[in-house]
Structures
1.
Amino acid sequence: MATLPKSHHEFWPRERAGYEDRRTVSYAPGDAHHLHVFLNWTAWETRLGSLVVAVGLIWAAGVVTSGHPSLGALWQTPGPLETAAIGLLIWLHAKWQRSVTLR
């Protein structure tokens, strides 16, 4: 195999920017941030409030459309509107907690 003379300079040297043969890590584990997000009570409270509101609204839709449909049946049946209101209060409390920083 023929060798190149020492005076021959490589046209595209390896140390040119962008041509390094570096291996990049596709995944590097970080700190326990995911555990903090999982245990974040405010996020769970937001989800819980939204879920309770949805259950109350679905219950209210079932009450209104069962039998002969009327909005009077919704006022006479205890439960669905109160459930939705409690869920809304839970959701609002979670939003308030996110906006306030305690020292």
Note: Helices lie at 33-38, 41-65, 71-76, 80-99.
2.
Amino acid sequence: MAYQYVGRPWHEVEPVLRAAGTNYTAEIARPARDFFKIDEKYLYILRERKDPEGSLQFVLAARCTGVLPVQRLLALPCERERGCPWNGLQDWQ
């Protein structure tokens, strides 16, 4: 089975499914601990499965809000020392 929705934002996929009249169920996966803060307004599709009746089953997860500040902290030495902006592609040696 080809997964056509995995990794995509739920707010983009849900209207497409409704417009096509596709039967589906969606379950939100939540972390067991609250160490990393999440933003439940931004849901992404983690798993996609088609049951024998043809209905799609999705497992959704919220975006983690604690990742971006860490990326910015890692970028600060690069920005100070070399004057390059952070784009996530720097080689860290």
Note: Strands lie at 24-29, 38-50, 56-64.
3.
Amino acid sequence: MEIAQNQKDFNRHATDHLLNSWIQYTPEISPDSFFKSLEIGRDLSVDEITGIGLKIDDYLEKLYADLEVHAPQSDTRALFNSIREIEHHEKDKLTRVANSVYDM
């Protein structure tokens, strides 16, 4: 997955300043609460799987946008902007893949 590779690259090249940045922000819905709220069962349809994936993408995009707004330094804001753009790209990819299933 592109996000996993980007995470590895970031950890290799990030400065201590960026890694030690503190952002005073609490999301409206904690990641733990969000993921627990997802209804993931057995034998899900393509639409259900896609819907769950899109909910996750929407949540992460909003989280990254909020972190970008609350980040105190410009390099930290740029980082969250970049991550949000990657997440948006992943969301578009999921939509294309789901649509291609119906074209089969």
Note: The chain has a mean pLDDT of 84.
4.
Amino acid sequence: MATTPSFNPNRYGDALELTRVTPDKFPNPQLDLRGATVLAIDNLKGKEYVYNGKKIFLSPIQYEQYNDSTLEKYVFTNREGAGVYTNHAIQDIYEP
């Protein structure tokens, strides 16, 4: 049941590294970002993150909002955020 991590487990901050969603990086957001946690600016209810040395407040958005060009969106560089530290072989639900 061993899994090989796709990250450096000694650099914890790398799991929370953010990438800004732009049309040149993600031309079709609903397809390109499927399965990823997409966050948008939310100064009222958002959690605090650091992007390029500045504090920003982000909260997750719904799948239907992925194509909304009025939102400033971010995604975790590794697509999972802190979830990369989960041992999926043990903690995911088993379906025979």
Note: The longest helix spans residues 29-32.
